[in-house]
Amino acid sequence: MTLPKTTEKQKDIIDNVFRFRFINRYQIQKIVGHKDSKRVNVWLKDLVEKNYLGRIYSRKLLENTKPAVYYLSLNGIRYLKREKGIKGVYTRKLYFEKNKSDIFINHNLFIAELYTKLSVAHSTIEYGFKFDNFTFATKSRLSIRKGYRDVKEIKDIIPDVHIRIVDIMAKTKKEKKENGSKDYFLDLFDFHVPGYALRHRVNQYINFYDWEFTKERQELMKMYTFPTILFVFSNPKKIKRIKTYIQDKLYSAGDFDNLTFLLTTTKELEEKGLDNPGIWRPIEKDEY
Q: Is domain 1-100 in CATH 1.10.10.10, yes or no?
């Protein structure tokens, strides 16, 4: 079966829908960097008609002001398999996108919005060239096996995103320049996530760190720092309890100088930005 024709810009849109799973029209327009919203709407309408994308849009009062949300449809999945060579577990789950819950959809929209804001904040013009001084890999595209030991449990460690960006805790431009870029694992915890699931996630990261920083590897990894772990909570009430749990686990585990947790809320992150050091609650060493 021959796939319907698409332009290069439309292929770029399909790639980004795959990256975020669910993404709205405003976010797509920012990511593809096109100023003409009408042109983007024409591309999206064509992709929906050709069954590359599915579309979620409500005509109900108050909801009809929200931008349409897009996800991959049958020909979009076929495109990934034939032209991108993406198969197996990466595409199998995509056949059920239209049945996903609002919680799952909003979760992915939040990640897409985080990327669009970072791409604007960290794209700069120097000597006539535009470049991004950060990287952003989502769960759909992320394989943390590269650069880490190949352990069976790694498939359970994959965060929502793996970000490389200028030190988010640096308070001045001079400090940011001196500290350089750092790696971060970010997990967004939706409002409904129970406490036992949060504790399990903390344990997963601590165990993963323990695999990576065995004594025999530390000498070989002097220039390597384990990514800082960013926890973002929709429910701010859960921060205090999980912070205490992390403190107790780090204390009982021993020397975890390279393992850092930073906690914040979705509201603070949306209002002030990821690289605002004031939003992050660290686990201070003197606390444990």
A: yes
